[in-house]
Amino acid sequence: MAPKKVLLLCGDYMEDYEAMVPFQALRAYGVSVDAACPGKKAGDSCRTAVHQGIGHQTYAESRGHNFALNASFDEVNINEYDGLVIPGGRAPEYLAMDEKVLDLVRKFSDAKKPIASVCHGQLILAAAGVVQNRKCTAYPAVKPVLVAAGAKWEEADTMDKCTVDGNLVTAVAYDAHPKFISLFVKALGGSVTGSNKRILFLCGDYMEDYEVMVPFQSLQALGCHVDAICPDKGAGEKCPTAIHDFEGDQTYSEKPGHEFALTASFDNVDASSYDALVIPGGRAPEYLALNDKVISLVKGFMEKAKPVASICHGQQILSAAGVLQGRKCTAYPAVKLNVVLGGATWLEPNPIDRCFTDGNLVTGAAWPGHPEFISQLMALLGIKVSF
């Protein structure tokens, strides 16, 4: 069967995770994804927003990554696509006023093609008139609009709630991504095999925002059990993340990201019970590489030849652990010194989304490479998505 192809409907200040996680997860599974925004063309970017609750009456907003589009909205032909994904954030407020957007959504709905919408994205569904008598959930503040549009509102008892009604998949917020993406894959005719795997993420304060959440939720969406740990922290505690992006300076910029919730205690975790280890990049690896317990953990996975996937600055930890001797490895270019001094053969990440597998080791240079990074780890774990 020909590969599936879906459209991601983008706009300025869409929520950062709600755009990138499904975009890269679906591509890792072998789905072709076009990201388009009204008034913009392939190669342009959309600014994104980081939305999260930090104890106030509503969520806070800060600047996210710049999201690169790979399709031109005016050239979109619905007949080329098998499904539609609508992120939330603030973009839906103005996209819901755009007749070209509403016409596009109606065409997907009339053709009974899968539509997956999250958070505030359902404002667009309501404006398009496609939720009449349909079960639907969303971020709680969207309830009045959906009810007025004739939807059968399903209360968001938790932020990870999803609802399915025919070809329509709706979710409350990015917490729901694992189920949201899984349900969309199923709606596209996909099935997953080999997903009974346990995967451990090695986290730290100011790890890169995308580099922890995208693979974390992508693997959860496949049905894997995924845990995240950080030295000196326990389950339920959080790590602040950093948004690293290129914005015209000689090196990447850094902005505050989301706060990432850990799922297990570092001191109590039984590393032997996991099938693979993932190491995000960002600034966390600088200090994690100095932690003897971290080094011991990494050595244990490598000595047992279990899959280890490390991206960007994560290879600073691999080098400090002395596990790169004789291996082929890439990383963020500034980490080349660590890799070479660690005894590895340097593999140039050209382009920056290149990833490589050497035995049990998967390495990538930066978050644009997540689709390859995740798919290569899936291959080592024997996980397959078929359509």
UniProtKB/TrEMBL annotation:
The name under which this protein is listed is Putative DJ-1 family protein
Organism domain of life: Eukaryota
Domain DJ-1/PfpI positions: 4-186, 197-379
Q: Which Pfam families does the record cross-reference, listed alphabetically?
A: DJ-1_PfpI
The family assignment reads:
Belongs to the peptidase C56 family.
Q: Which organism is it from?
A: Oryza punctata
User: Which SUPFAM superfamilies did the record assign?
Assistant: Class I glutamine amidotransferase-like
* InterPro entries found in the cross-reference section: C56_PfpI-like, Class_I_gatase-like, DJ-1/PfpI
